Amino acid sequence: MPTEPRSVLFVITRGDSIGGGQIHVRDLARALQARGIRVTVAAGSEGPLQSELDASGIRHIRIPGLQRSINPFGDLAAVGALRRHIRRLSPDLISCHTAKAGLVGRLAAFLEGVPAVFTAHGWQFAEGIPAWQKAIVLALEFVLARLTRRLITVSGYDRDLALKLRLAVPSKIVLVHNGMPWLDARPRLAAGSDAVKLVMVARFQEQKDHGALFKALEPMDGLPWTLELIGDGPDKARWETWVAARGWSQRVRFAGQVLDVPARLQAADIFVLASLWEGFPRSILEAMRAGLPVVASNVGGVKEAVTESTGIVVPPRDVPALNRALRALIADAALRRELGAAGRLRYESEFTFDAMLAKTLKVWSAALGR
User: Across residues 73-98, what is the average pLDDT?
Assistant: First the structure.
């Protein structure tokens, strides 16, 4: 009979940043450890993720060669290193997260005869991703899917895409929406001024469309708004320069990578996520948990979280539509409260961490069954 695993090895590409995949692994690792399951997290780099794991007493290891960039020799070295750790740790299950870790982790698991589950936090062949990248990843995934006991998608959009492309039989591809740990609902905090505070949580990289957000805000110079941008990334310096040249240094704050995101959301009025592609953004669930109205690009599984009663979705790259959505919410405090309250209720009923954990364990149990 299928049972819960006694030990799990998580594999994720990066530990030097705290994004959706890292938070997902961290929270699952904490929950499993609390259930008495032995947990180890393997990553290709070290940083904030390992610090958070240390604080919870969770074992972690570094896999040299496990990097985002394509490097055949480095990838083969990473597979070999991971295989050695698998023999030493003897995990019942290997849970892989993010694209490169999905490649390295599943190959190593297959070669060592250990069941593997891959969680796709947004396929790297979805709409909006460069064609060359889609072609390479899709070709690899056709092979890797056959080495995988189960594929978990975090959105119905991604499951439908995998089925359309016939990556695997339907029973092998399971939808498990992301979920966020419970935080009690709290009264909205005053922003401390008459300005409406916008907040966006996203890395400064090609996936996120900070440029569209800035263009949408340009015609609203005369309206009372401020913007906090939470996250780091390679494009951050360029946008800091742009904001300074625009004369917005007093109303746009670059917070960088921070660990107190819930508190910052609590002090905001509107959450915005301008993006070119997504899986099922955890940042949106965080905003709903905080009781914020959401304005987001209609990509990936965004509409599975944001409904007409909880926020406004706009087409990607559609600057006028983004401008209209933000303008409407900046001007209407009652609408902000209404959408934010509905978002909190939707989080409570659909997107808690406990619900996600129960579904994930069920998938893992099925993967361990013969």
Answer: 95
For the record, the structure tokens of 206 come out as: 């090609």
- Determine the pLDDT at residue 193: 59
Full DSSP string of 305-333: H--TTTEEEE-TT-HHHHHHHHHHHHH-H
Residue 1 confidence (pLDDT) = 43
Alpha-carbon distance of 58 to 40, in angstroms, equals 7
- 341, 324 Cβ separation under 8 angstroms: no
Is residue 363 within 8 Å of residue 174, measured between CB atoms? yes
Task: Report the run of H or E that residue 339 belongs to, with start and end.
Answer: helix 333-350
In the sheet with 38-43, reading across from the earlier edge strand, the strands are: 59-62, 38-43, 7-12, 93-97, 116-120, 150-153, 173-175
Residue 294 CA to residue 347 CA, distance in Å, equals 13
116 closest CA partner among 140, 147, 79, 89: 147
Q: Report the C-alpha gap between 308 and 310 in whole angstroms.
A: 6
Tokens found for residue 356: 């996600």
Handedness of CA 94, 98, 102, 103 (dihedral sign): negative
Contact 138, 117 (CB under 8 A): no
Q: Which residues contact 247 (CB under 8 A, 6 or more apart)?
A: none
Give the pair of three-digit tokens for residue 193.
């001024």
CA–CA distance, 150 with 146 (Å, rounded to integer): 9
Tokens matching residue 212: 């569209």
Fold identical between 7-179+352-368 and 196-350?
yes
Domain covering 196-350 assigned CATH 2.160.10.10 in the classification: no
How does the average pLDDT of the chain come out, rounded?
A: 93
- Helices 99-112 and 72-89 cross at an angle (nearest 10°) of 50
Q: Which helix (H) or strand (E) holds 174?
A: strand 173-175
Q: Could you tell me the fold of the domain covering 7-179+352-368?
A: Rossmann fold (3.40.50)
Is a pLDDT exceeding 50 seen at residue 232?
A: yes
Residue 153: which pLDDT band, with cuts at 50, 70 and 90?
A: very high
pLDDT at 41 over 90: yes
What is the residue extent of each domain of the chain? 7-179+352-368, 196-350
